[in-house]
From TrEMBL:
It comes from the Bacteria. SUPFAM superfamilies: Isochorismatase-like hydrolases. InterPro entries: Isochorismatase-like_dom (IPR000868), Isochorismatase-like_sf (IPR036380), Isochorismatase_domain (IPR050993). This is Isochorismatase-like domain-containing protein. Gene3D superfamilies: Isochorismatase-like. PANTHER family: HYDROLASE, ISOCHORISMATASE DOMAIN-CONTAINING PROTEIN 2. It comes from Pelistega indica. Residues 9-160 form the Isochorismatase-like domain.
Length: 186
């Protein structure tokens, strides 16, 4: 059940300019998302990013913009219903032989949950939700989304769990830069 960096793809859902300011604990969600995305850069982990109606909601927030990887615009709440997203996910997965998807994003109870459950039910991927790298406007909505995801068999993780599992050891050459990011998390 431990994550290995070489098995993972990170799916970043709708961390967008006009959406993020209304999230609870937005600074924590952004800091945790950034820590994960910086680690994807080190470990060469592919990232797929969705932007929901970017002409209306804005592009990916500037703090995370450089780490977006493949970007898919979407109109449906669930990325699993966007042909372009599924096509890109399958392409990356087949090319890299990666089958573990880590979801981060907003809003936890809408686009993240619908995307996660839509992909999870296809049984092609092991799905994980990084709880502290996801946001909603209300705590009850996030709490209910986490319950539903867990009941569906999705593994819930924290940012630190992900980063330490990817590192595997203090001898990992990426330990020092990652531990610096971990120390800055609240």
């Amino acid at each position: 059940m431990l994550l290995r960096a070489q098995d993972c793809i990170v799916v970043m859902i709708d961390h967008q300019e006009k959406l993020m300011p209304s999230m609870m604990n937005v600074q924590q969600v952004l800091a945790n998302s950034l820590a994960i995305l910086k680690a994807t850069d080190l470990f060469k982990i592919p990232v797929i990013t969705t932007e929901h109606y970017p002409d209306k909601i804005g592009k990916t927030i500037s703090d995370l913009y450089a780490y977006r990887g493949e970007v898919i615009e979407k109109k449906t709440f669930s990325a699993a219903k966007e042909h372009g997203f599924i096509q890109k996910l399958v392409e990356i997965s087949q090319h890299t032989k990666r089958t573990h998807l880590l979801f981060i994003g907003c809003e936890t109870h809408v686009c993240v949950l619908q995307s996660l459950l839509g992909i999870h039910e296809q049984n092609h991927y092991q799905c994980y939700l990084v709880v502290d790298a996801c946001g909603s406007r209300k705590s009850i909505d996030k709490e209910m989304a986490l319950r539903r995801a867990s009941q569906a068999g999705v593994t819930l993780l924290s940012t630190e769990m992900v980063l330490f599992e990817w590192l595997e050891s203090g001898d990992n050459p990426f330990f020092k830069p990652i531990i610096q990011d971990i120390k800055q998390l609240t």
